[in-house]
Amino acid sequence: MNQKPRLHFIDALRAFAILMMLQGHFVDTFLSYESRDTSSVVYNIWLYCRGFTAPVFFTVTGFVFTYLLLLHPTQGRKNPRLKKGLFRGLELIAWGYVLRSNIWGLFIGQIYPNFFITDVLHIIGVNLIFLVAIYWLCANISRGALAAVLVSFTLFVFLSEPFYRMAEFPNLPSMIGTYLTKINGGVFYIFPWVGFVSIGSFLALLMKDTLKAAFPQWSLWLAFSGIVLIFMSSSIVEVIVSNFPNLVDPEVMSSPYLFHRLGDTFLLFSLFMILEQRFREGLFLEIGQRTLSVYIIHYMLLYGGLIGYGLKLIITPKGLDGWESAFGALGFVLTVIFIVLGYYHSEYYKKKTSLKKNKTQST
After folding, report:
1. Domain residue ranges of the chain, discontinuous segments joined by +
2. pTM (2 d.p.)
3. Which H, E and C letters describe the chain, residue by residue?
């Protein structure tokens, strides 16, 4: 069987995003309130960069799923990647609940309220299932029509942000409502992140046939689009609102941050595409291929997911100054990467993989 062609810039971009997430979670957990000085250039740069981590992750999720889906020789509803995407989505949701559980509580039959709060794995999983549903429903329409559906959906999600920002769904069970709104305490929720997933899917649909041969052209197009969105997002939203006053809430003009963050994401895509040749092999690329494992280990170490004991119980939250947080974050990132890559390079993992391959070949 031929190996699937890898887009090295995507693995590198995922590695960058996961490392940004690791340090961001550590610093946000332990940096003291006194050190969160908005007049500090360093703190403001850190805060700005932290804001594009999630948009990058969700956009990459949509891009990778769709790119691999389109590469398969069997298209339409019989494409086996639809089934794989469905099970992958369910797997991520399951991992989200596992990390939100407490093994010691389970021993005594106790499920804590924290278990029902959605996190990033839940929402990535739901979004994968959303993409499977979209492609299954739109299997018989042209690729151009599907691209129009995806980009229109992103616009709808971004422009309706004032509605779902503080929306309440009192008649829904809280376990379901937490997927929809921050009111129920979720850390992540479906909106607006599904908009980034759908635009990632749109990009893959747009680039699939010419991506490898036209890296320079696509990187320039993404860079231009990113700059326009970053510096002109307010003007763009204002034009849309003025032309569709009965369809778009004018309140969206007060904070068009989703378009701004999409611009950041496009710029990062462009940068990593330009550097594609530098990401053919190495540690950085390997990290990008193990993002789920990195997330699981970081969550257990930092927040005590499943095991109930993490650094958050050992180090005083919001108790470190700037330098302590920076060095602590560096140590934390290196520890997580060492654990994850150490496992994948271990003899145990190599033997396990070899046995699995032999079993597959024999069947």
Report:
1. 8-362
2. 0.91
3. CCCCCCCHHHHHHHHHHHHHHHHHHHHHHHECHHHCCCCCHHHHHHHHHHCCHHHHHHHHHHHHHHHHHHHCCCCHHHCHHHHHHHHHHHHHHHHHHHHHCEHHHHHCCCCCHHHHCCCHHHHHHHHHHHHHHHHHHCCCCCHHHHHHHHHHHHHHHHHCHHHHHCCCCCCCCHHHHCCCCHHHCCCCCHHHHHHHHHHHHHHHHHHCCCCHHHHHHHHHHHHHHHHHHHHHHHHHHHHHHHHCCCCCCHHHHHCCHHHHHHHHHHHHHHHHHHCHHHCCCCHHHHHHCCHHHHHHHHHHHHHCCECCCCHHHHCCCCCECHHHHHHHHHHHHHHHHHHHHHHHCCHHHHHHHHHHHHHHHHC
